[in-house]
Design brief:
Layout lengths: L3 H5 L2 E3 L36 E4 L5 E7 L2 E5 L6 H21 L7 E9 L6 E9 L4 E3 L17 H18 L11 H19 L9 H15 L2 E5 L2 E5 L8 H20 L19 E4 L1 H10 L3 H12 L7 H33 L10 H20 L8 H11 L7 H33 L1 H21 L10 H16 L4 E4 L1
Parallel strand pairs: 1-6, 4-5
Antiparallel strand pairs: 2-3, 3-4, 5-6, 6-7, 8-9, 10-11
Length: about 500
């Protein structure tokens, strides 16, 4: 075992989210045994540690060591582990005396042993918790960057980050402190979720992390535990508040989890700061967006303006590197549904084009273009469906990783926008080319004059539909003006390098 002096150098500040709670090996040693006859009594050994079981099933230990309350997930029922933990606790107590630090009465210490490849070398990960002030602290200056706490803008912003870490700790170790926690945290949580649900119902750009439906489910669970009667009538929630019981460990566990999630969202949206993010679509900090206007104009001209739709949607989904899971799921669900439908319609165009090519006096060469376009729509849609299988139920963290990887450092979301546009754009091209193929066949049957008249009628009908379904501002620009504008943008931007735009 290392000496006390060596152990001082091996104390490692960590946070409640950087512990190895979910990184442990899951192997267990199972065996058969023989039970003795008669009533089996539970064996209990006298120990300075009290054992508790987390609602998820994780065993942890708690001990009062003088004025210090200690929790750990180490197996202190093992003598060697207990001795090693005790030696580190002695080192920590010595450091406290050397620093002249006065710990609050509601202070709690978490310790976790970490071993290197050599069994003789160990470190002790630790942090302190202040239950009164809802925060974490350490014995030495610590860097928020090294602790992976995110970028800060003020001391009050740091307080929110520390409170989030506090609630994560309470979620992991709720059973021994549930009697000490005021039930007021549950009342406050219900008020916060009620406000968040109303904000979601009345605003499409709310920054609250839970949807209206999820808030409804959470309120039902919280209300039942707090002793409330929930009357639901036509989606209106009338809460009759009754006297609730003190929180138990199970209730405190999920209440702490919700508070941790809410404080994490508050940290991300700069809650309580001078420039808090009040709108999901408004980034709280300037973002550098790499834009190639010429290439983007060319892509929109070639693909019927569809890339602009996806380009805007993707930017709205990924503001300030944040993704709201319900908006992501709605977006992916709509995309998948559209791709499935386009595969069916493109297959119909493919069959129709082949049939037209088999008519008398039809030209087989005129069917090549629509067949290639329809096949491209079917192929691109099928690949996108395969690659996005299960994305409708993805979590926000998965969606953020996907969009972060898909966002090119040189082109932004333009490549992904073009890819997402391929099924619909190629279907539209296949439709147009199939109509041209049919008109060409008609011209060989009834003559060019009647075929031209039919083509003119179709063109006039298409223009009328576009004209009467456009916005008022769009009526001012003719199709020629719009095409000329796109072409000028392409010419002006094609010779320029990528330009970083600040929004």
């Amino acid at each position: 075992m290392a000496s006390s002096l060596d152990l001082v150098k091996e104390l490692r500040p960590v946070t409640s989210i950087t512990t190895r709670r979910y990184e442990k090996l899951l192997w267990v040693d199972a065996y058969h045994t023989t039970t003795a006859p008669g009533l089996r009594l539970r064996t209990s050994t006298k120990s300075k540690w009290c054992s508790f079981i987390h609602p998820e099933g994780q065993l942890y230990f708690h001990m009062k060591r003088g004025n210090l309350s200690v929790v750990t997930e180490e197996n202190v029922s093992n003598i060697d582990t207990d001795n090693l933990v005790s030696s580190y606790l002695a080192v920590i107590e010595k450091r406290i005396l050397e620093c002249g630090m006065i710990l609050p009465q509601t202070c709690e210490l978490f310790v976790e042993l970490r071993f290197d490849e050599s069994p003789q070398t160990s470190t002790c990960a630790y942090y302190f918790v202040d239950h009164d002030n809802h925060c974490l602290f350490w014995l030495e200056p610590t860097s928020s960057e090294l602790l992976d706490m995110g970028m800060l803008v003020s001391n009050s912003h740091l307080d929110i980050a520390l409170e989030r870490l506090y609630w994560v700790h309470v979620e992991f170790f709720p059973m021994h402190i549930c009697a000490q926690v005021t039930p007021l945290i549950l009342d406050n949580l219900i008020s916060v979720i009620c406000h968040g649900m109303t904000d979601r119902m009345t605003s499409r750009t709310s920054t609250f992390p839970y949807t209206e439906e999820k808030c409804d489910q959470l309120l039902r669970a919280l209300s039942l535990r707090r002793g409330m009667e929930t009357i639901v009538a036509k989606r209106v929630h009338n809460l009759t508040i009754m006297q609730g019981e003190p929180l138990d460990g199970y209730t405190l566990c999920f209440v702490a989890r919700l508070w941790g999630a809410i404080n994490n969202q508050r940290f991300m949206t700069y809650y309580g700061q001078q420039n808090a993010q009040l709108d999901r679509l408004h980034p709280p900090m300037p973002e550098d967006i790499v834009d190639h206007p010429g290439i983007r104009a060319l892509a929109n001209l070639t693909l019927w303006g569809i890339p602009n739709h996806y380009y805007s949607k993707l930017h709205d989904l990924f503001v300030h590197d944040q993704v709201y899971v319900d908006h992501w799921q709605d977006f992916v669900t709509a995309c998948v549904s559209e791709w499935r439908g386009l595969i069916v319609w493109a297959f119909s165009v493919l069959i129709a084009s082949i049939l037209i090519s088999m008519l008398p006096r039809a030209s087989l060469s005129s069917a090549i273009a629509p067949i290639i376009a329809a096949s491209s729509s079917i192929l691109s849609g099928s690949i996108l469906l395969l690659k996005h299988h299960g994305f409708e139920d993805a979590t926000a963290s998965f969606a953020a990783r996907f969009l972060r990887a898909a966002k090119s450092s040189d082109w932004g979301f333009l490549p992904l926008s073009v890819v997402y546009s391929m099924p619909k754009a190629m279907y539209l091209w296949s439709m147009g080319l199939m109509v041209a193929q049919f008109i060409f066949w008609v011209s060989r049957i009834v003559g060019v004059f009647w075929a031209s008249g039919g083509a003119g009628f179709l063109a006039l009908m298409g223009y009328g539909i576009l004209h009467f379904t456009s916005l008022e501002d769009d009526h001012l620009d003719s199709m020629a003006t719009m095409l000329r504008s796109h072409w000028q943008t392409f010419q002006n931007g094609s010779g320029e390098a990528a330009e970083a735009l600040t929004v």
